[in-house]
Predict the 3D structure of the following.
Amino acid sequence: MNDLLAQLIWNGLVAGSLLALVSLGLTLIYGIAGFVQFAHGELVALGAYGMLIFHKFLGWEIFPAGVASVACVIFFGIFLEKILFRPVRKKNPLVPLVISIGLSILLQSLILIFFGPQIQTISDRHFESFSVAGKFLATPNQLCAVVAAVILTAGLIFFLKKTRRGQSLRAVSDNRNLAQIFGVNIDSAMRWIFGVSAGLAAVAGIFLGFERNLEPMMGVQISITAFAAVILGSLGSVRGAIFGALTIGFAENLLVGFGVIPSGFSSAIPFLVLIGILLVRPTGFFGKSSQFLRE
Amino acid sequence: MIEYFFSLATIALIWTIVAQSYNLSFGLAGLFNLGHVIFFGIGAYAAAILNTRFGFNFLENLGLAALISGTVASGFGILTLRLRGHYLAIATLGAAMIAQVVALNWLELTRGPLGIRGIDEPQIFGEIFVGDTLPHFLLYFGIAATLLFFLWKLFQSPWGRLLRAIRDDELAAIAVGKNIFAAKLWALVLSAALAGVAGAMYAHYRVFLDPSIFALSEIILLILIVVIGGRGNFWGNVASAFLIVGVLSELPRFLNFPETLLGAARNIVYAGLLIATMFWRPRGIFCRRKK
């Protein structure tokens, strides 16, 4: 029993840290650009499919292939901001939200047409799993994923708190007009935020691609889980996104693992948790009550 | 060919009703509820189960589907209407996910991914309307026209104006003493009942039902119709439902896309259209540009 618990907690930690990378990007975009980027999960999928191209089709080593894939997705994220979201920045937040819904379906269909509907794997190599302290099994990929997630999250927090660029981003998030008056370039702030969050999404996508399989719809499932995580911890809040992602990662694994909820229903768990929390706190766990009126 | 035309027109009629019901809650009252397909799906499943298990006929099912969808919506509304903006959108999207998962996994009730087969064809007053596509179309046209007439009256009524006021400026509506929670809840319940009727019509027309009715692509289609028709624009939405479901959805087939890619090609058309409309005509293509 002890072993099962340890295994489930480890699996929850892996799922939660990868979800945190996706959720951090979503929450940053919400905080600074003011809308939920519905197509964020498609960037995760593109990261994984990029790895498929560079590693499997072109035969590059894992590390350079990963860097190339992340770089491509970062440029793609910046490109999307420039052509789709910049022109509608001053409009009602509903407009970019609906545009990103369209974008999500568009990218998903393009992936389906280019790569086919079948399930694919990045690597045919089988990763040998090893036992940790005789309690639970872990794969090298899971270990790297958790380490990478911790380093990237710490790096992101350092960037936001300590660097000049990060401080200007937080200023834009607090009050866009005031930041602009003080000379923050909003265009470049948006470029940074879309680039950073696309990069985080792509990293998560690569690990997820090794962990599970690739399929055209994978982005939607990840976005939807990440939405739940972000809303759970309050939109725009960085610690909220981490908290929400870990909560959902653990909840999914523990509830299914102990048979509280049948495994067929597992994709409903994020939303059961979400709706439960929203009933008590309509703006999420770390939400301010003033946010309630502002929205 | 004429058969094909009438069956397409019938499907377009059903989607007109669903889109108009969404137009009532999203377009008029401004509730950005991404889970509206739940009510369509619940109506469809209610009709399918009541018909195949308990032998209720088409006409009874229309009423029962409305009742069941409306009841679910009142619970749904009490839970979610205190949320706003993006919180409402995501929570209701989650509710749609839960509905799909339940439909897939509650095998005793819904038969899961196998779907429910052998639903009766729509008939009313005995056997008059069984069989052909033209009588089906006429029957559905009659039902749709009646429902839409009442909805149109509702859009013009003082209550319709109240909903528009809530959408445009909630604080002002509170300030003049309107009970906005009740108004929103009623808008949601009515729109759900209407979507439930459309669901029952859909289930009886297709005679087969599976959980894909709750899929994200259906949600996108619904948003697309209302965005193109214009939020709160009654006739714009009738036109856009026919334009999109009747014409555009069949476009990839005429362009001879391979069968396996039809869904993807259709989604690309929808997505491109959605993005273009939001860019250039966020108030709908039938609305003159302002300013």
Summary: Residues 2-213 of chain B form one domain.
